[in-house]
Amino acid sequence: MNIKSVDTELKENLETYYYPRHVAVWKVTFRTIFATRKELVFTFGDGVTGNIGIVDDIPDISDIETDENQLIPWEIDDDDFYDKSKEALRKYFIYKRKVWKVPHIECDYVDSFFVPYQIEKKSIKSGKTKYFLYEPMSGMYEDLKKHKVINKFVLKEGELEV
C-alpha cells in the first residue's frame, strides 16, 4: 500500500507501525494594540485521539510503500480536524495572544500523513525483557505501555507479548 509518511531514517530489524496525523496551514489576521498583523500558523493533529497543537514547522513528507496491517486506523477525518483546529486557533489568539478583535482565520490546506514508530525489545537490569517505543523523528525511546493507542494496536495484531 502506498502512503504519505514523514521522511526519516528507520532502524533495521524492528517492527514499524505508522500513526495517523493531520497538518493544516493557516493564515491568521489579527489586531494588536499597535497594528493589524498577519501570521502563518501550522496546526498538527492526532488522527486517533483528536488532540491538536500549534507547531513551528512541518516535517518533510514522502511517499512510501508499506503493509496495510502496519497502519493504525484513522478515527478523526480531515473535516473534524479542520473544525477543531480552527476553533483551537481562535481560542489561542483570543485568550493567549490577547488580540483586540476576533482573528480572521483562513486555511491554506489540510493534509493527512503517517508518522513511523518502531518497537524495540531491550533487557533491563532485573533481567526481564521490556518493550520500548522508538520515535525515529526525534531518536527518543519511551516505555511502550505509556502509549496506549499504539500498545493496544500492537497487542491486537498479536505481534508482541507486552
Q: Would you give an account of this structure?
A:
The chain has 162 residues and is α+β, with helices and mostly antiparallel strands. It has one domain (2-157). It has 2 helices and 8 strands.
List how many beta strands DSSP finds: 8
Major sheet: order of its strands? Answer: 4-3-2-6-7-8
| Count of the separate structural domains | 1
The tally of helices reads 2
Structural class: alpha+beta
Question: What general form does the structure show?
Answer: elongated
The proportion of residues in beta strands is: over 45%
For the biggest sheet, the summary is:
6 strands, antiparallel
Distance between the ends: 28 Å
Q: Output the radius of gyration.
A: 19 Å
- Percent of residues in helices: 10-25%
Uncertain runs are none
Question: N-to-C SSE series?
Answer: EEEEEHEEEH
Q: What is the average of the pLDDT values?
A: 90
Give the structure's gist in a few sentences.
The chain is of the alpha+beta class. Helices cover 18% and strands 45% of the residues.
Present the secondary structure layout:
Blueprint (H helix, E strand, L loop, with lengths): L1 E5 L8 E17 L4 E11 L5 E4 L5 E5 L12 H19 L7 E20 L5 E7 L4 E4 L4 H10 L5
Antiparallel strand pairs: 1-5, 2-3, 2-6, 3-4, 6-7, 7-8
